[in-house]
């Protein structure tokens, strides 16, 4: 009998029952007041007069009226850069101990996003809340005695001018609680290896020594790791070496496009739980099995706002127009795409994180990620979100019985006419003309704006199939393998030309 597992499961179930009914709106009001109160004496807080703002009748509306929107470049140039010049108390009291490096999905240049002790604690607390929510998933007691393999970036952080820098997954893993270290794999020594291929090789070598119950990481890199372990030990599937693997915590991107190829590496079904951890903080996690939507972490160190994702509010570069209206949690509606804004205990204020979301349950504050503001394919009026593109790829998988774990596309001008040029990552072979027809027909049916565009300026669809490994090689060449690195689903023409040159070179 799994005595320790039963005790842990029992504690989690009791803790979840005692936590009571949540009120996300009230939690968000408390979070904003805490942020304003804590930061009122910072340079930023004095500039925008947080002291007076806290005494106004409706500080939430006044907060939105008084403080402009910030993307990374804007807040970094005006405020965060001062931290690197040695200033303190800039947008949050003191100076951050960490900076999260993030190239996101749009380029090579790393952003340096401050991560304070308060944010580390906030991420840790959100992680605990997700653990408590496991009581909803009816997992067996012995699951709580198994190891958890977290495949993130290296925990060997770089020391720079009195602080440490690395990806958020590496920063989080380097701050795991003491009680968790016995469960944590691959362990501190392997986790510190900077070279991703070397780290995965070590994981493959050590795999027989671990009893893994759960995996956590971005799907594309997790698949490559599982493939490496399977190949290294000449297995048919990963359950032959980790028979107790029951839960996969996905994160950062929608799991849907990877589901079919991921499942092909398994020997039996598992529970997949979505998580939304960004460089700027722990945004949301899936709290119950009836849905794959995620519950916003409304009682942590993040205050959320939402801007309706409409063409009149979005600039060409994905930023917001100055007059774009923002809503708080009490004002949002179902089935509407919103640009997500956050203000945090790391000193981000009305910060455009770059993702678009929609609400699936207002009372529970549950959301789904629908895309990226910069990856919204709106050339010649087609208005396709990443969500719709993912649906189209899954349709191809089901229609032709194939696996397409990766893809990218561009609205490309060819002989003065626009085409949607797709690259599908698949080892399977299907007649190209059938893929083109099925993709085009599905999107016409699923999106009226696309259907209209196809009758006018959008001439047609082109499809090229390449090996999925090309996508990870591209990321390795342009950014870095592993960690939080994700493939850009939609590219501009200049970047797409680089991609096509890369593919043509035989990579």
From TrEMBL:
Q: Which domain of life is it from?
A: Bacteria
Show the Pfam families listed in the entry: GH3 (PF03321), GH3_C (PF23572), GH3_M (PF23571)
UniProt-listed InterPro entries: GH3, GH3_C, GH3_M
Q: Where is the GH3 middle domain?
A: 297-364
Q: Where is each GH3 C-terminal domain found?
A: 389-494
Q: Which GO terms describe its molecular function?
A: acid-amino acid ligase activity
Gene Ontology cellular component annotations, sorted alphabetically: cytoplasm
The signal peptide stretch is: none
| PANTHER family for this protein | GH3 DOMAIN-CONTAINING PROTEIN (PTHR31901:SF9)
Query: What is the recorded name of this protein?
Result: GH3 auxin-responsive promoter
């Amino acid at each position: 009998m799994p005595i320790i597992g039963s005790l842990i499961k029992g504690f989690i179930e009791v803790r979840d029952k005692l936590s009571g009914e949540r009120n996300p709106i009230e939690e968000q009001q408390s979070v904003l007041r805490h942020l304003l109160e804590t930061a009122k004496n910072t340079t930023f807080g004095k500039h925008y007069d947080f002291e007076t703002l806290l005494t106004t009748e409706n500080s939430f509306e006044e907060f939105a009226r008084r403080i402009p929107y910030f993307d990374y470049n804007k807040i970094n140039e005006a405020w965060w850069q001062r931290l690197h010049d040695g200033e303190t108390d800039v947008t949050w009291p003191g100076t951050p101990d960490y900076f999260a490096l993030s190239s996101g999905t749009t380029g090579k240049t790393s952003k340096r996003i401050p991560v304070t002790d308060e944010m580390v604690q906030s991420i840790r607390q959100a992680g605990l809340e997700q653990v408590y929510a496991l009581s909803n998933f009816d997992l067996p007691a012995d699951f709580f005695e198994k190891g958890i393999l977290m495949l993130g970036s290296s925990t060997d952080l770089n020391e720079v001018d009195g602080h440490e820098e690395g990806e958020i997954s590496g920063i989080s893993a380097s701050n795991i609680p003491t009680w968790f270290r016995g469960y944590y794999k691959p362990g501190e020594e392997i986790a510190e290896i900077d070279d991703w291929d070397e780290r995965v090789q070590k994981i493959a070598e050590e795999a027989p020594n671990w009893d893994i119950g759960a995996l956590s990481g971005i799907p594309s890199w997790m698949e490559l790791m599982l493939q490496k372990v399977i190949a290294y030990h000449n297995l048919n599937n990963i359950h032959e070496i980790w028979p107790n693997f029951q839960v996969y915590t996905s994160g950062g991107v929608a799991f849907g496009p990877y589901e079919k190829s991921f499942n092909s590496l398994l020997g039996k079904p598992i529970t997949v739980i979505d998580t939304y951890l960004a460089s700027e903080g722990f945004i949301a996690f899936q709290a119950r099995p009836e849905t794959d939507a995620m519950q916003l972490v409304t009682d942590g160190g993040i205050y959320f706002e939402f801007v309706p994702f409409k063409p009149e509010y979005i600039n060409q570069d994905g930023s917001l127009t100055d007059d774009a209206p923002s809503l708080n949690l009490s004002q949002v509606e179902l089935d509407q795409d919103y640009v997500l804004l956050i203000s945090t205990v790391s000193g981000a204020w009305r910060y455009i994180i770059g993702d678009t979301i929609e609400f699936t349950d207002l009372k529970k504050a549950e959301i789904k990620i629908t895309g990226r503001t910069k990856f919204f394919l709106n050339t010649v009026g087609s208005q396709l979100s990443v969500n719709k593109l993912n649906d189209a790829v899954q349709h191809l998988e089901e229609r032709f019985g194939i696996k397409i774990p990766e893809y990218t596309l561009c609205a490309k001008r060819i002989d003065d006419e626009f085409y949607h040029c797709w690259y599908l990552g698949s080892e399977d072979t299907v007649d190209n003309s059938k893929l083109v027809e099925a993709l085009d027909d599905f999107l016409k049916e699923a999106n009226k704006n696309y259907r209209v565009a196809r009758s006018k300026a959008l001439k047609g669809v082109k499809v090229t199939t390449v090996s999925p490994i090309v996508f990870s090689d591209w990321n390795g060449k342009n950014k870095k393998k592993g960690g939080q690195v994700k493939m850009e689903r939609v590219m501009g023409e200049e970047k797409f030309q680089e991609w096509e040159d890369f593919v043509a070179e035989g990579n």
